[in-house]
Amino acid sequence: MRHSVSCILILLLFLSLLSGCAGQAAAPAATPAPAEVITISDEASSSPAPVPTAAPTKEPEWDEAALWQALSELVFEFSSGAGGWGTELYIDRDGSFWGTYHDSDMGDIGEGYPNGTLYLCQFYGRFGQAELLDGGAVRLQIEDLHCLKEEGEEILDGVRTIYSQPYGLTGDGRFTLYPPATLRSALSEELLGWVRWAQGDSAQYTEDQLGFYTLCNESEQQAFSSMRLSDGGRTIRQRVSEAVRTAAPLEAKLQQDLSQTELNDTAGEIYAAWDAALNDVWQQLGAMLDAENFQRLTAAERAWIDSKEAAVHEASDLYREGSIYPLIYYSTAADWTKARLFTLSEWLH
């Protein structure tokens, strides 16, 4: 009997537990929190981030334009240092250049030239792209060189003028430009011999350094030393350079297959360019020179004008009635005016 009662009690307890559970909703099973979404860019890498390092030191950039600008404020001279002969070279901001070589022997006289002998070359041309070398030197190569007069001679105002090559620029056209801080030991004794006389005049000169820009003709082992121009000298140099830049393409145009009218007009433009520059330079010289020197120069200028007019008429009058007359007239006048402009450049410094 007791066994039956116990079984009944256990059964009733089990049923009560079931009824209690049926009255409540089952709790949902716990789920993990959603993971944070991380977007990875195309450039991202699964490898560890590199350790920051110092940026590499860069060499100063080669500024060719700044070099030409610095050279345009100078005159380069090639001479013995004792006077008598010399070549003056002016370099422009685009690598073009112009200048004059002259020498004289007033004792070399003869029939028709009682006033002596003059050796002369007036020239212009262009350096190609500059190339920076180790140590700060610069390699230059002449790409174009023209002399105003072909080699030969003529007698002008009792002076035998012998037209020659530009001394210092002959050879294969290879040049090396050394900056002022260059050690003298970088140059051969032969090159130093050409510029040693100029070192004492340089404010940057030391016992070890050159003290000025030095332009060396490699094949001929000759060297130009530089000297800074005065303000007035730079103004004149710039005006002559402008005339060279204007006239050079026009002179090249004359070699093309043009009509006679086009040839005449082009020759007129060339003459106008040189004549305008000559007038500007003359005014600048008037402001630069003292009264005595300007008076001497004025007398020489008047004599030159007379010689120029005579030469122009002698060359062109024969063709006065022909269509070629303007070409001959303007070309002759331009040649004389250009030569005179280069001659006046000797007063720059």
- Helicity range: 25-40%
Count of strand segments = 11
Largest sheet: 8 strands, antiparallel, barrel
Helix and strand composition category: alpha+beta
First-residue to last-residue Cα separation: 146 Å
Portion of residues in beta strands equals: 15-25%
Poorly predicted sequence stretches spanning 5 or more consecutive residues: 1-46
What's the helix-strand series?
Answer: HHEEEEEEEEEHEEHHHH
The Cα radius of gyration reads 42 Å
Note the total helix count. 7
What is the averaged pLDDT score?
83
- Strand order across the biggest sheet? 1-2-3-4-6-9-10-11
Shape verdict: globular
Explain what this protein looks like in three dimensions.
- It is globular, with a radius of gyration of 42 Å.
- It is α+β, with helices and mostly antiparallel strands.
- Strands 1-2-3-4-6-9-10-11 form an eight-stranded antiparallel β-barrel, surrounded by four helices.
- Helix 6 (291-316) runs antiparallel to helix 7.
- The N and C termini lie far apart (146 Å).
- The chain has seven helices and eleven strands.
Summarize the helices and strands and which ones pair or pack.
Blueprint: H1 2-22, H2 64-71, E1 74-78, E2 86-91, E3 96-105, E4 117-127, E5 131-132, E6 138-147, E7 152-156, E8 159-163, E9 174-178, H3 189-199, E10 214-217, E11 222-228, H4 231-253, H5 260-288, H6 291-316, H7 325-344
Parallel strand pairs: 4-8
Antiparallel strand pairs: 1-2, 1-11, 2-3, 3-4, 4-6, 5-6, 6-9, 7-8, 9-10, 10-11
Summarize it.
The chain is an alpha+beta fold and 349 residues long. The protein has helices at residues 2-22, 64-71, 189-199, 231-253, 260-288, 291-316, 325-344, and strands spanning 74-78, 86-91, 96-105, 117-127, 131-132, 138-147, 152-156, 159-163, 174-178, 214-217, 222-228. An 8-stranded antiparallel β-barrel has the order 1-2-3-4-6-9-10-11, surrounded by 4 helices.
